[in-house]
Write a structure and sequence with these properties.
- The structure is a single chain.
- The chain is built from 7 helices and no strands.
- The longest helix has 39 residues, at 112-150.
- By secondary structure, it is mostly helical.
- The radius of gyration is 34 Å and the shape is elongated.
- It has one domain.
Length: 236
Amino acid sequence: MGTDENRSWGWPVLIWVYLGLSVVVAGPRAIVASTPVAADPANTNQSRQQATVATGYESSRERLRDARDALHQGRSTAAQGLQRQLEKAHQQLEALAGRLEEEARAAGHSTLAAARQVEEDIGLRVRRMEARALLLQAKANTTLAVHAASAHDFMLAEQRLAAATDLLRKARAALVDDHAYDDDLDDMEAALHEASAAVKAQAQDTRKKIEQVLTDTDRIVGSLEVREDNAVLRAR
């Protein structure tokens, strides 16, 4: 009788012991399994920088599209003597666009530091190309202002100079972090201001004032053209 009673009490005890051991054994495993794995800071930083490089290239693509549009509009209003500069800019723009795509594809096979440097160099060239396209469009408007003023259509001349001034503002924005042309842009802005004042006053030296804008614009555009040629040579 005693033996049966021991057996009847033994099974529940064994079950409770078993369950207790299961909780003890499974508990740490459950805690380990539910604990999130901390992200590696180095990998996170690298991924962030890679994303920055990719974003930089995409921004440059958008700028090149805007530059194409500006060149196209410049062609539609181009006067005699501007075609060569527009064609040269178009050729360099397309070559730069091809270079951008090559470097974007190669970025994944380079060290992160090298990829960042190349993207920044391409970005600078793209911003200068965008500014150059805008300035060529400004030159086209200024040339038409000369013709309008010569025909004593001062209202049209004023409108053309206002358009050129707005394009100069956009070119400045493209070069906001590139201070190589600050002084030249200041000179062009001052020349535009004087030309606009001369047109409004219908002054005798109006044509001379407007032609000074063309001279200042050509100086900047010519420098940007040479710099891009030199950048192509260095990249080879």
